[in-house]
Write a sequence for this structure.
């Protein structure tokens, strides 16, 4: 069975259903920020289900700029004005961070993040923190049956890190488009540990 997609130039492209296409073939050369919403609806639905099954509530709420999403250990909140592709990434991204803050086995790792004063050491800790969260997001994607978007997600993770790193290095939000990268190494899925849900200090994405 073949699926078809009509693009603005009106040429009809055909390709196998998403579940049968290796990630690198589906990804092609399309960059972060260029995915049409209709190609990510399936991802959104499955990830929402997976996040709820892990015990977190998902909410839409108007957030003060530059916040795009927040989490508090019990719920993940996304600003509805954020583009749909970014919403998909934020849900995976903030799920990964939520895991870090409510998994008893990971609690010891948070001390360095909160108390490291040396800037270079802090950036190393922050990078490890971001990559660990990304691994939980990739694991969730695979658990809910999405296995063809590994490159999209990995490129988004790398792009997001360049954005976050730029902010912490300069104390200014960089231009998002200048941070976009593609063809990045794939994020390694990380098994999701036991969770004990409890409220934590609100943390946010920007």
């Amino acid at each position: 069975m073949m699926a078809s997609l009509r693009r603005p130039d009106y040429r009809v492209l055909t390709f196998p259903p998403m579940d049968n296409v290796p990630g690198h073939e589906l990804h092609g050369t399309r960059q972060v920020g260029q995915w049409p919403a209709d190609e990510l609806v399936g991802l959104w639905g499955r990830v929402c289900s997976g996040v709820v099954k892990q015990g977190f509530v998902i909410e839409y709420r108007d957030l003060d700029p530059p916040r795009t999403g927040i989490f508090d250990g019990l719920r993940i909140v996304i600003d509805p004005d954020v583009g749909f592709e970014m919403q998909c990434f934020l849900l995976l991204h903030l799920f990964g961070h939520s895991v870090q803050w409510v998994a008893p086995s990971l609690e010891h790792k948070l001390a360095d993040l909160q108390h490291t004063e040396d800037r270079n050491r802090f950036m190393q800790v922050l990078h490890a923190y971001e990559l660990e969260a990304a691994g939980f997001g990739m694991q969730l994607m695979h658990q809910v049956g999405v296995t063809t978007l590994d490159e999209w997600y990995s490129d988004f993770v790398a792009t997001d890190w360049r954005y976050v790193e730029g902010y912490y290095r300069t104390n200014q939000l960089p231009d998002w488009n200048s941070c976009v990268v593609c063809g990045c190494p794939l994020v390694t899925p990380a098994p999701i540990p036991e969770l004990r849900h409890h409220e934590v200090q609100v943390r946010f994405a920007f």
